[in-house]
Amino acid sequence: MYQKYASRRGWRFETLEISKTEGVPGYKEAIAVVTGDEEVYKRLRFETGVHRVQRVPETESQGRIHTSTCTVAVLPEAPEVSVEVMNKDIRVDLYRSRGAGGQSVNTTDSAVRLTHIPTGIVVCMQDERS
């Protein structure tokens, strides 16, 4: 649907990734990039959200309509920037597992938190117990 709309407007539509559903014809996920004039984001930004999709599957013998949903996200492409982060501006906090006993308690770092001190931006990553 969006591919034909982009084509009619003279925009370039490029499919980056497609994941098909297993067992039945259809798509689980699709990622695409639409490029063109300054109207691209202006026209597509309101498509963001959940859309209702109605169809009659081939397996439906009584002709009933099935309703599904699909989620659309429209994001503008961010300009590329160059950032230099100094090690002295980063605080690293490591966390270890806690709890009742076990061989890896207090020996395995299972989470890390990085804090950029000048801006206060925090990034966290946690790994599940193995």
Mean pLDDT: 86
Count of DSSP-assigned helices: 2
Number of strands: 7
**Can you list the strand order of the major beta sheet?**
5-6-7
**Ranges with pLDDT <50 over ≥5 residues?**
none
- Gyration radius, in Å: 23 Å
Largest sheet: number of strands, sense, barrel closure? 3 strands, antiparallel
Q: What report would you give on this structure?
A:
There is one protein chain. The chain is mainly beta and 130 residues long. 11% of the residues lie in helices and 41% in strands. The strands form three sheets. A three-stranded antiparallel beta sheet has the order 5-6-7, with no helix packed on it. It is flat, with a radius of gyration of 23 Å.
Task: Provide keyphrases for this structure.
130 residues; mainly beta; 3-stranded antiparallel β-sheet; 2 helices
How would the blueprint of this fold be written?
Blueprint: H1 2-9, E1 12-20, E2 27-35, H2 39-44, E3 49-55, E4 66-72, E5 90-96, E6 109-116, E7 121-126
Antiparallel strand pairs: 1-2, 3-4, 5-6, 6-7
In short:
This protein has helices at 2-9, 39-44; strands at residues 12-20, 27-35, 49-55, 66-72, 90-96, 109-116, 121-126. The protein has 130 residues and is mostly beta strands. The chain starts with a helix and ends with a strand.
